[in-house]
Write a structure and sequence with these properties.
Structural class of chain A: alpha/beta
Oligomer: heterodimer
Number of helices of chain A: 16
Order of helices and strands of chain B: HHHEE
CATH topology of the domain at 1-44 in chain B: Histone, subunit A
CATH class of the domain at 1-44 in chain B: Mainly Alpha
Strand content of chain A: 5-15%
CATH class of the domain at 4-258 and 407-486 in chain A: Alpha Beta
Strand order of the largest sheet of chain A: 1-3-2-4-6-5-10-11-9-7-8
Shape of chain B: flat
CATH topology of the domain at 4-258 and 407-486 in chain A: Amidase signature (AS) enzymes
Number of helices of chain B: 3
Distance between the termini of chain B: 42 Å
Distance between the termini of chain A: 15 Å
Helix content of chain A: 25-40%
Strand order of the largest sheet of chain B: 1-2
Largest interface: A-B, 74 and 53 residues
Number of strands of chain A: 11
Order of helices and strands of chain A: HHEHEHEHEHEEHHEHEHHHHEHHEEH
Helix content of chain B: 25-40%
Strand content of chain B: under 5%
CATH superfamily of the domain at 4-258 and 407-486 in chain A: Amidase signature (AS) domain
Radius of gyration of chain B: 23 Å
Structural class of chain B: mainly alpha
């Protein structure tokens, strides 16, 4: 029998329909892989009983000809999506033991399409991080190792568990969330596809909030086609999220084969700063050539406010986080540390419940919103955000898509010294602008560096034009022939 | 921008996060490092720029969704209280607030 865990979602969908194997067999193969690779620490909570029950339901629906778009496909759910009756922690001690009484809209849509939940995936605490090192439940290890070396690497973050599970063949796909690059950067680090759709495509209802004007859910998969299949299911208007767009969801999969002939691809000069990693720069050049070979023309463009994006993000995101995370007060849910007064109970609960990086960001956010500093920081950041959006709007008047590297480096070591917060923030330097502007972005695995580690390329398009993004991604994937199967399942 | 101990103490109080006296200096140094990196934004000219207050696409005419002001949920008290650290009967229990 074929190795069930290395199939793509598209292939498994077809083979399930032809009854070459059952959904239960497919799920059990993945549960066995999860058992074998527990050391990756990809999951915070495994849900084998739920998975088997849902797989059996899928088999019944396949038998009766009522299969959904993701019928019987085993997926991991980032532990930031509330799942009814299943612990949801956001990788924080403060939410340990929290059992939602409702299901997030996105995970409900995936469930309604017949997919099977394998468990809840590890992440940086409250999605704040780029290495998965800030999780209360311990770091995630990447399934990848540098050539000839045995030390563990980070899977990136914040969707590090999702990245490790998909690249390590523990799940066929996973949900991620992306506030500043948390889908795309880990996807680049582990050699998978990660898509952040346009702000407003996916409902944020039931996703633990980090920075509400930036957060978007999206798929993480091993192929571009799988991402298109999964994203279609995840999108759509939801009255429970006032920022969810009342727009029709295109058939992303149908766009894949259209190629890039005649498309104009923008190459922003600000993404090639002095000192850009030579291998990253070379891979970017390769990507440019692939698109030209496929019939696209490239256009040199400028996004003048690029260097302002990251510091702007570190005002906007902590500000929104400090407000969103005010809800963890030890009263309604989560952990509580008793105190003599209500204020003391709050302060002790939050001191004990939040980790180091989360506290840092709440304090920064509180400061930039505090009386006397709001105009200097938050209002200034909102204005620069408008300029960054204008940069992109001007660019998309001239080009159909933009190609950049996803991250400035390949994955780094789990034990590398990481005591400079700003150095860690720089991981997201190429991904953050898309969140600030609300435009869609995807990372496609494009090659390996000299150490044998994956590097990704990022494709950006104007809002609501994920179809063009997918067309470009498909051409890159076809040209790259990425060796994702080099990881032993 | 360099934060002093007193400012950190004030922010921590506003944020309701207990920061021990012994950690105030290190916290001040760390936050100051991040804030001084952010200071580079002062060089960006934002004269006459309208602030962007959210992620919505106003160019598409998309606005925050509205719905009729009617009760469309409720009657789920047990669910609401299910995760409370101190569900005191039908209430959220908190330390005594009024003497």
């Amino acid at each position: 029998m074929t190795n069930l865990t290395t199939l793509t979602i598209a292939a498994a969908r077809d083979k399930l329909a032809k009854k070459e194997f059952t959904a239960l067999e497919l799920t059990e193969a993945h549960l066995a892989a999860m058992e074998k690779h527990k050391a990756l620490n990809a999951f915070i909570t495994e849900t084998p009983d739920i998975a088997c029950a849902r797989a059996k339901e899928s088999d019944a629906r396949i038998q009766s000809g009522k299969a959904g778009a993701l019928e019987g496909i085993p997926l991991g759910i980032k532990d930031l999506f509330c799942t009814e009756g299943v612990q949801t922690t956001a990788a924080s001690h403060i939410l340990e033991g929290f059992t939602p009484q409702y299901e997030s809209t996105v995970s409900q849509k995936l469930r309604d399409a017949g997919s099977v939940m394998l468990g809840k995936l590890n992440l940086d605490e409250f999605a704040m991080g780029s290495s998965n090192m800030t999780s209360y439940f311990g770091p995630v290890k990447s399934p990848w190792k540098a050539k000839g070396r045995s030390d563990d690497l980070v899977p990136g973050g914040s969707s590090g568990g999702s990245a490790a599970a998909v690249s390590g063949y523990l799940a066929m796909g996973a949900t991620g969330t992306d506030t500043g690059g948390s889908i795309r950067q880990p996807a680049s680090f582990v050699g998978i596809v990660g898509v952040k759709p346009t702000y407003g495509r996916c409902s944020r209802w039931g996703i633990v909030a980090f920075a509400s004007s930036l957060d978007q859910a999206g798929p993480m998969t091993r192929t571009v086609r799988d991402a298109a299949i999964m994203l279609k299911v995840m999108c759509g208007h939801d009255p429970k999220d006032s920022t969810s767009a009342k727009l029709d969801v295109p058939d992303f999969e149908a766009a894949l084969g259209k190629g890039v002939k005649g498309l104009r691809i923008g190459i922003p000069k600000e993404y090639r700063p002095d000192g850009l990693n030579g291998e990253v720069a070379a891979l970017w050049d390769k990507g440019i050539q692939w698109l030209k070979d496929a019939g696209a023309t490239t256009v040199d463009i400028s996004l003048p406010h690029t260097s302002a994006a990251l510091p702007t993000y570190y005002i906007v995101a902590p500000a929104e986080a400090s407000s969103n995370l005010a809800r963890y007060d030890g009263v309604r849910y989560g952990q509580r540390v008793e105190g003599r007064s209500l204020d003391e109970m709050y302060s002790k609960t939050r001191a004990a419940g939040f980790g180091f990086e989360v506290k840092n960001r709440i304090l920064i956010g509180t400061y930039v919103l505090s009386a006397g500093y709001y105009d200097a920081y938050y209002l200034k950041a909102q204005k620069i955000r408008a300029l960054i959006l204008k940069d992109f709007s001007d660019a998309f008047a001239k080009v159909d898509a933009i190609l950049t590297p996803t991250a400035p480096t390949a994955a780094f070591g789990l034990n590398d010294k990481q005591d400079d917060p700003v150095a860690m923030y720089l991981n997201d330097v190429f991904t953050v602008p898309a969140n600030l502007a609300g435009i869609p972005g995807a990372s496609v695995p494009a090659g390996l560096n000299s150490e044998g580690l994956p590097l990704g390329l990022q494709v950006l398009t104007k809002r609501w034009d994920e179809e063009t993004m997918f067309r470009v991604c498909q051409v890159l994937e076809d040209a790259a022939q990425f060796p994702y199967l080099t990881v032993t399942p | 921008m360099s934060l002093d101990k007193a400012t950190v103490r004030k922010i921590a109080t506003l944020a309701r996060i207990d920061v021990p006296e012994a950690d105030l200096d290190a916290t001040a140094a760390r936050l100051s490092g991040i804030l001084s990196w952010i200071e580079q934004l002062n060089e960006v000219n934002t004269d006459g720029v309208q602030p962007m207050s959210g992620g919505l696409d106003e160019s598409m005419g998309l606005k925050l969704g509205w719905r009729a002001d009617v009760v469309n949920d409720g009657g789920i008290r047990d669910k609401v209280l299910a995760n409370a650290p101190d569900a005191n009967g039908a209430f959220f229990g908190v330390p005594k607030v009024v003497e």
